[in-house]
Amino acid sequence: xxxxxxxxxxxCGELSVAPENKEEKSLKLSYFDLENFDANINIxxxxxxxxxxxxxxxxxxxxxxxxxxxxxxxxxDRGERxxxxxxxWARSFQFYIPVRDNLFxxxxxxxxxxxxxxxxxxxxxxxxxxxxKYEQIPNIVPxxxxxxxxxxxITISEAKNTEVMLFSGGLDSLAGVIEYLxxxxxxxxxxxxxxxxxxxxxTQNSIIGYLQxxxxxxxxxxxxxxxxxxxxxxxxxxxxxxxxxxSAIAFAICNCYxxxxxxxxxxxxxxxxxxxxxxxxxxxxxxxTHPKAIALLQKFYRYFSEEFSLLTPYSNKTKADILQIFxxxxxxxxxxxxxxxxxxxxxxxxxxxxxCCSQCIDRRFAVFATxxxxxxxxxxxxxxxxxxxxETRQRLYNTLRxxxxxxxxxxxxxxxxxxxxxxxxxxYTPGSNPDxxxxxxxxxxxRFGQSVLFAAKRIQAQCEDLSAxxxxxxxxxxxxxxxxxx
Length: 486
Known about the structure:
alpha/beta, 16 helices, about 40% helix, globular
């Protein structure tokens, strides 16, 4: 019985008019109207230079390719949540994309570099690309509703004094902005964001407004959108390919201003994301900022510029380390404005955080570990007093087990348990001495464990009512009974 999913053929731009094979799965994507196909996606990148034509053709191609990949990722369902450990999780894509610089994109090494980065980053089985030279290059005109760019643009007047940084509005990227602006008081930042939805955009804009006032308008905010048109809802919400889209925009901005690097602020625990259950790594563990994913993207961008680098200053930090940065810079009050939640669908009420996803769980333990819980955001579900479902319970079990280094009494035990995952991490971590890199990795996870266990003790001290029984199906009950086994 063949359980492997069929290949999804993705026809992009002017190739969307290709004859359809009824026996094969296919997807058509275009941001401009064609004779027999109406545009079904919006790509509204804000214009960061005065004249689109001054961008190198391969850079415009890059922006289109990244957008098509992102939209295809969201258009093809991985399957029901209860099947995510099955073969339905990993998909296979064959892209057909028109390009301007066909000589560059037809280089097998270039397409192989994209494929390698996307396959690891998304956990999918295959990403294949066939590039064809545009027969008729679309007319990209500012203010046109189907334009790739609009009439807003960003100018960086002092490019040498400005750094480019990815900015999601989460704790890590916000801490990166705050630490950078406080450390380099004469420097400016260009922050690259994605307009995922109105709620996220509002959060990002509110934070940017605060930072502008606080740090003397030393920020340029570049906010782009890429999504399906109205009445065409996305089917897949994991958005594993979004890092490629983010990085493509950041690289294009760097290319415009002759910069050779941009910053990606993500804590090491989240980036590495060791599997808390052995059979769910491919399905649940996001690898968007994993050291290998970053290295593979950097390898790809070095086909454009040989010295280009993606910098990850927080790769050796835990979430608690990130929270400490807010405290060190007297910025605790902005913590509640940041959004860490990874749940984008069916979030009850008006709270910005679901309280159930892995990101929410990690955040809550971190704020208690740093004694900053009074500055935290609101959560739709409070697992401390009531665990709403079995999936949240399992996440809590797994987090506490990893923190307790269950079955790992030494560094050697740690290495043996995560041998395959560590191989990917060590090979793609900066440094020349594998033993030193292994030590740093082990110490990172020991610090994570210590912070979570300290947080657990503080949660008990702050939230437990000694005059009454702990609520049933709550973290308090789990901690009181040491109920760490399913």
